[in-house]
Amino acid sequence: MSENTTVSFEQLSLPDSILQALKVIGYEKPSPIQEACIPLIQQDIDLIGQAQTGTGKTAAFALPSLAKVDVSVNKPQVCVICPTRELAIQVAEAFGEYAKFIKGFRVLPIYGGQPYPPQLRQLDKGVHVVVGTPGRIMDHMRRGSLKWDHLKTLVLDEADEMLRMGFIDDVEWILEHTPEQRQIALFSATMPKPIKKVAEKFLNEPQHVQIESKAKTASTIEQLFVSVSNNYKLEALTRILESENSDATIIFMRTKSSCDELAKKLTARGFSAEAIHGDMQQKQREQMVQQLKDNKIDIIIATDVAARGLDVERISHVINYDIPHDSESYVHRIGRTGRAGREGKAILFVAPRERHLLRMIERNNSTTIARMSLPSVEVINDERTRRFLDDVQQQIIAGEHEAFRHIIERIQSEHNQSGVDIASALASLLFKDKPLLLENLPEIPDFEDSKGGRSNSNKPSGRGKAPVRTQAEPLKGDPDVELQRYVIHVGRDHGVSPKHIVGAIANEAEMESRYIGNIKLFDDVSTVDLPSGMPPEVMRILQRARVCGQSLNIELASEYLKGDSDGGKPGRKHKGGKSKPRQGKPSHKKGGGKRSGNDKRSGEKRAHDKPKDGKGSDKRKKKSS
């Protein structure tokens, strides 16, 4: 399909309330995928939307499905399934923005790692749109807290990514347990065979919409990425702002609330930073842009929508604090610098589990983004010294030091002090509370490895008896990544499979799946090899994470085996707290051994059981776990 659109949003028969919101946001004309998909969804036609960059996909399904919502019926009418919680939050916020003039509209994001009670209260109160990850949607369906009696449209967003993360079986289960009379819109950048099979099985004579994008980045922009987990982004950002010889910087984030929060944190650290977002009046926005042009503000923090049309010549750096989910957004973001032949620098923060988005951006823009190491103490101190010298020189050139000349001359004559000694003493007073030079920096752990190997985490467990051992097996393709063996307190008895473990760790700890090593399943525990030296914050997250209704309670294998005198075979803990050893046989097939008829998941049914209301049928063959 052509990249140019000739219609307006008004011509797409959208309600006035939505058109009003689009005008406030600043949308002028629909993108090609929006022009093609909006009429089809409005007509309840199943569709497959395929776009290499994903440009405008959210609005392509959100606007027309929102137009069909009846706010007088406080039941879920639209369901959007997303592969990650970040995308679920982003899509839910987009629905909220588009529906800001629809009185009484409610949207609810649901995802793992979030407590159940708030979600249950919101569902009981009534919502119109549910946006969530497969696992949490399934949990609510099994609980009976999420029913689809009034479902009109079901959207699969980034279907190929859900396949890559091992969620495709869960997606199929959800589709099988929704009413037959519902519309399905499937969006995917690529169409691998498993996705085609899902489309053939569940979609009814779908229309296929395919968009090609030609957006390119400017050759004058130096593109770099930094590998850093979310817990350490602020520290990494601070170091970059300290070390880069920048003029003005724009930092991109996904949500307006996070923009405000980051602006406060940077201001507290001594930076001149302000947030721009959609809640601002146009006059406020214009004033802030003028302050940026007049050198009164050095850092602007914005969302994609808020930065629309922002063109300030002195912007030398663009920092993607939150990585965009499509390469088109990336191109538009970094285009704020390097304009009209000027040089610019674009830095992209990439969490371990976001490496697939980095590869997607590189592939779609036919470019390679170089890895950037975070600046050292020496680099930051050199830049601080340079800035201090520049400030002193500017004071001298401006003549603003003349008022103090007679005082310095008096000190020289009365105390016989040299000018160097006096200037050094004044500098020490100036930096008494905040030293000019740093002695050290907090450590920022890095799970990433530039060689890009793959993990063997999806290998079936071995055969025969396999007591827990403390030695981790090498990570295939990544010999330089040092691993440690951990024990997690969930196993075959709980119905767990390797993909459940990989999904939980990848989502909760923000670790790319290829850095999750060998996994072995036992009766009530499992072992998993993970990068050594994981920070305490990550360990605390994993200890609380849940798989199949069980807390992982992760611990080092060496700690788990303390007190076992017979080799430390896995077993249940008795009252004394030590492990009572018993034979632990790993499963012979991927996903564990055979389960008994009753699945031990705190009373919950297995993924392939019917929900409480009995609706739906399980068309898939039950696999041995």
UniProtKB/TrEMBL annotation:
Its main location: cytoplasm. Residues 7-35 form the DEAD-box RNA helicase Q domain. Coiled coil: none annotated. Its EC number is 3.6.4.13. It is an enzyme of class 3 (hydrolase). InterPro entries: CsdA_RRM, DbpA/CsdA_RNA-bd_dom, DEAD/DEAH_box_helicase_dom, DEAD/DEAH_RhlB, DEAD_box_RNA_helicases, DeaD_dimer, DEAD_helicase_DeaD, Helicase_ATP-bd. It catalyses: ATP + H2O = ADP + phosphate + H(+). Residues 570-593 have a biased composition (Basic residues). Keywords: ATP-binding, Cytoplasm, Helicase, Hydrolase, Nucleotide-binding, RNA-binding, Stress response. Residues 443-476, 561-625 are annotated as: Disordered. Residues 38-209 form the Helicase ATP-binding domain. It is found in: Cytoplasm. Residues 233-380 form the Helicase C-terminal domain. Residues 596-617 have a biased composition (Basic and acidic residues). One of its GO terms (molecular function) is ATP binding. One of its GO terms (cellular component) is cytosol. SMART domains: DEXDc (SM00487), HELICc (SM00490). Pfam families: DbpA (PF03880), DEAD (PF00270), DeaD_dimer (PF25399), Helicase_C (PF00271). GO terms for biological process: cellular response to cold; ribosomal large subunit assembly; RNA catabolic process. It comes from the Bacteria. Belongs to the DEAD box helicase family. DeaD/CsdA subfamily. This is ATP-dependent RNA helicase DeaD. It comes from Pleionea litopenaei. The lineage of its organism: Bacteria, Pseudomonadati, Pseudomonadota, Gammaproteobacteria, Oceanospirillales. The gene is deaD.
